[in-house]
Amino acid sequence: MLNDHGCQITYVTHSDPKGKLPLWLVNRITKTVAPKLSRKLHKVCLKYPHWKSEHAPHWKPWLFPEQQINFRRINISECQPRDYDQPIIDETKVSSKDFKGVLEGDDEDND
After folding, report:
1. CA 20 to 30 Å from 74, out of 33, 67, 89, 98?
2. What is the largest CA-CA distance in the chain?
3. Between these two residues, 4 and 43, which has the higher pLDDT value?
4. CA 21 to the chain's CA centroid
5. pLDDT of 59 above 90
6. 50-78 burial: b if 16+ Cβ within 10 Å, else e
7. CA-to-CA distance for 99 and 85, rounded, in angstroms?
């Protein structure tokens, strides 16, 4: 249950590496990125009130829509996916054993 001093975050992601990454790696990334992001976001949110008190404390366009009048409008044509001309490297044969020692600290929150 949320109160007036909290929020709820829903994190949804979809990734299609086109079969060029080993499934174990895609699964590992999926299981570690969201929790790390949540922990880091929580950490900075705790510091936000102090930071905001020193950085334009009255600027709150999410509460006062009139503060958004001079915002640049988003052009939908600038939001289209781009086609990057990069070679596709097939790494499907890479084993998790190749990363022994590298992936052990995945769950730590190192800043």
Report:
1. 33
2. 56
3. 43
4. 20
5. yes
6. eeeeeeeeeeeeeeeeeeeeeeeeeeeee
7. 28
